[in-house]
Amino acid sequence: MSTSTRENDEAEPQRGYWRWSKQDFLPEESFQSWNNYVSALSQTWLRFKDRLFSRSDDATETEELKKQSEHDMKRCLNWWDLIWFGFGAVIGAGIFVLTGQEAHNHAGAAIVLSYVASGFSAMLSVFCYTEFAVEVPSAGGSFAYLRVELGDFVAFITAGNILLESVIGSAAVARSWTSYFTSLLNRPKNSLRIKTNLKEGYNLLDPIASGVLVIASVITIISTRKTSFLNWIASAINTAVIIFVIIAGFVHADTSNLSPFLPYGAKGVFQAAAIIYFAYGGFDSIATMAEETKKPSRDIPIGLVGSMSMITVIYCLMALSLSMMQKYTEIDTGAAFSIAFQSVGMKWAKYVVAFGALKGMTTVLLVARLSQARYITHIARCHMIPPWFALVHPKTGTPINATLLITVASAIIAFFTGLDVLSSLISVSTLFVFMMISAALLVRRYYVRGVTPRENLVKLVMFLVIIIGSSIGISAFWGLKPNGWLGYTVTVPVWFLGTLGMSLFLTQQRVPKVWGVPFVPWLPSLSIATNVFLMGSLEYDAFIRFGVCTVVMLIYYFLFGLHATYDMAHQQQMLKSKVDQTETI
């Protein structure tokens, strides 16, 4: 940029953070008048074709789009903070609830193998996320990565689904927080909720759940650094409780409870693995904090891979201790650890377990407020939602507007909606986005615009179709005939040959600068297969909900998001041309 242009920018008066003009919400040309909007709608198909194959780049996501926030987020986190953020984001009530449920219903004593299987799948996704987070250190996380490799449309539909699930998930955790708090006080189940005459599932109002969400949001708004410190303390206490549970469990262990080890066979192990996979959810939150990390290339790999490795070991030890304390047929599906300790004469331990679960849910909500707000901030930077939500406060260095949006949405849902209704909304979105990230990583490694020959691009698309198609086939055969073997003799070799073909007939076009996934394309391809396999183990209703959410996202995209991003892209192109002309002169 020329000196005169820079001086003009510096001379422009600084605008205040709290502002409400139309230009702050709808600055794009398409929304300046009704006629403009109608004209934009009439060009929807042309604009869609233009944006469908338009991809961003690393510099745009990490540098250019940050200008939309007007102020930078404060770089105040290191690898130690990220490890504890990993603990805070992942270890919630899931380990205490899902372990007993799945040991009793599906896996038996082999529940530890279910945690190994789901942990392995999660680690594959962690590797892919880590490479992207180091190469594209943006607050947008998976949204930014998919925009770079697969384009606006795929990024928005994928990110929109997972964001919607995150809002609903936060509301569910907040409702669970109230339930565990009630249990800790030794009071009746719904005694802290307000009973009304509304429809069943919406008739128990929960002001405590909404209050917890608001308090967590206020903390994250004040300072990311202080939030990290508070998360560190809460996660350390929760870890101490978990260590107590593991040690006490092994002290009262009876190895005879491990027999029979596989009462439901391999099918039960993988059915349980698909469900307890959600106990590993949340690690992607670390990737959204890249802009606030002092040294992303060093701190993010340590934070992501380090925290998830330790969490996998902790989960397996907890599952094993429970299986040895009680026979799988006697494990309680509602309060597994509390009842197990009671059976060995430690009735008081149920309060320790409830306290640990409460602490775990608190940190999950705290880290979720951070990551979801940054996710929204980056989506707003791209103008897919009003850019007012992209603003970063100059004093706190945090995205207050984005935090308010996510908090209001979650708090309203948590206030009115029962936990049973919220739990039924768990969808395939998480596994879907992990699968897409793995596919995007393969695209990143094997395709560079302007460098890769068209012939190699065609081969890459063909091999990706083979890998994803065969993975769907493996998942489908598992769902239809889990005890059969004939279908696997076709689908597994096809997956293997597709991955082998990519390895032999394509040359990697890009080498990671600092940290990269090893054994490419094998590990990303295996990540695709495992995520699709686990998706196939979910209920049919989950795919219906995923489809409905996607349709809602499509309607929004074609009515608003498409035209806003189209206008922004063309405005930036015009601005770049003017700058180039000025520099030439």
TrEMBL record:
One of its GO terms (cellular component) is plasma membrane. The keyword ATP-binding does not apply. The chain crosses the membrane at residues 76-98, 110-132, 153-174, 204-222, 229-250, 270-290, 302-322, 348-368, 400-419, 425-448, 460-479, 485-507, 514-536, 542-566. The keyword Membrane applies. Its main location: membrane. Residues 515-564 form the Cationic amino acid transporter C-terminal domain. Belongs to the amino acid-polyamine-organocation (APC) superfamily. Cationic amino acid transporter (CAT) (TC 2.A.3.3) family. This is Cationic amino acid transporter 5. The gene is LOC106761929.
